[in-house]
Amino acid sequence: MPHLLAADRCWPLHDLAATRRLEARALAQRPDLMQDAGLAVAKLALALWPGSGPVWVACGPGNNGGDGRVAARLLREHGVPVVLTPDEPVPAERPALVVDALLGIGLNRAPSTALAATMAAVQACGAPILAVDLPSGLRADTGQPAGAAAVRADHTLTLLTLKPGLFTGEGRAHAGQIWFDDLGVAADEPASADLLGPLELRERRATAHKGSHGQVLVVGGAPGMQGAARLAARAALACGAGRVYLDLLGAPASEPADPQRPELMRGRLGTLREAVGVVGCGAGEAIAAALPELLARLPRLVLDADALNAIAADPALQALLRARAAGTTLLTPHPLEAARLLGRDTAAVQADRLAAAAEMAARLACTVVLKGSGSVVATPGQRPAVNPSGGPALATAGSGDVLAGWLGGLWAQAATTGAHRVACAGVFAHGRAGKASGVLRAADLVERLATQA
Ligand SMILES: NC(=O)C1=CN([C@@H]2O[C@H](COP(=O)(O)OP(=O)(O)OC[C@H]3O[C@@H](n4cnc5c(N)ncnc54)[C@H](O)[C@@H]3O)[C@@H](O)[C@H]2O)[C@@H](O)CC1
Known about the structure:
Blueprint: E1 3-4, E2 11-13, H1 16-29, H2 33-48, E3 55-59, H3 63-77, E4 82-85, E5 97-101, H4 113-124, E6 129-132, E7 155-159, H5 171-175, E8 177-181, E9 193-195, E10 215-220, H6 226-239, E11 243-248, E12 265-266, E13 276-279, H7 287-297, E14 300-303, H8 305-313, H9 315-322, E15 329-331, H10 335-342, H11 346-351, H12 353-364, E16 367-370, E17 376-378, E18 385-386, H13 399-412, H14 419-433, H15 442-452
Parallel strand pairs: 3-4, 3-5, 5-6, 6-7, 7-8, 9-18, 10-11, 10-13, 11-12, 13-14, 14-15, 15-16
Antiparallel strand pairs: 1-8, 2-9, 16-17, 17-18
Helix pairs in contact: 2-3, 6-13, 6-15, 8-9, 8-10, 13-14, 14-15
The structure holds ligand NAX.
Residues 23, 27, 33-34, 37, 60-65, 67, 103-112, 115, 132-133, 146, 159-160 line the site of ligand NAX.
């Protein structure tokens, strides 16, 4: 039975190769699997159908189209008027619902001219779109369109497995509401990635005091960019770190850490050898000179923004990064910073976000959070994770600084936890707090994080 994907737990994601293996094994036992797939599609279409008007079932040449054909037959048996293309002409009037069964996981090239024209007609007809398995034209592994465009659906009913491409890159913008039906087939294939759910790392014992909750040292905030470092520090504080210090680069000692947040203190590496470093927010070029010592001395590090740019530009810093102990360093690049780290352009990073994150993690021997829609967490030797929480309200100045600070705050309270797990927990919480209509200012995001925690 199709069900809306629940956001309160983790789910396994299976890439194309794993899905194909699963499908082949399932078909050997249940050759009529397509009947069940079509039934699942028909049930959801019936639930979405407004009660009058035709359903346009747009079928393609393969088994995705086969699912559509089964669904069309079942809907007709149920008394629902159906127009099935390409057997019948495209409806002249606006249908009540479109079922996009043109292309699923068999997509292997840019859509042909004929299919692209049908996809455009599906998109232009103005009816809600239910995509079968995947929005047509979207790549299952990367969430990128194979050609100029992929269908933008209102709902996607994905079958057998959850595909990574539904959750990262352009996938989330194309899939709409995601429904899932495993068709009763056990997923006896190792997951290719994890879809993140909530994960709590902090424990506040009755006997705890501020010394139990660790220290964070935020290094950044060069003149004119102090807000970035202050946002990171506020986030670490809101997360519950015991003591949060700010090393504002180039600021006189008389400058308060944050006039609006008296809980925050000025501090420097010299005395804070056990703190979690959150380094780079608004740091400017001055951070390059500070990085060797920070990389050498701080036991756990979150590196963001200008720290990443400095590392991208300097092979010696990259070598210092690689020399750190496993599980102690976390990088949070956005796609442009990732492109600099990898020495390629942003489009190449976005073309396969999971691969780009894995490559960065392997090259630099650390955990990488590749930010953007469907943030990817990658660590050498661990299964990658994709984050489904968050939305466009987070596309605002300072939300990345808040993430870096929140990660630092979490890590301060979970000292024995590896970078990968910290990243998974923090990225999900940050996205969940950032789910809002309109735009969210970063300082308000900190408050939302504090209250959901
Ligand atoms: N095999 C089965 O019994 C089941 C299949 N399922 C469905 O079957 C789908 C996979 O079926 P297929 O492997 O047949 O793949 P698709 O139906 O996704 O597409 C394959 C067909 O499309 C053509 N094609 C691929 N890319 C094209 C392009 N860019 N332009 C034009 N034509 C293109 C191929 O030449 C082939 O004819 C799944 O997505 C799912 O919807 C599921 O229902 C589970 C059960």
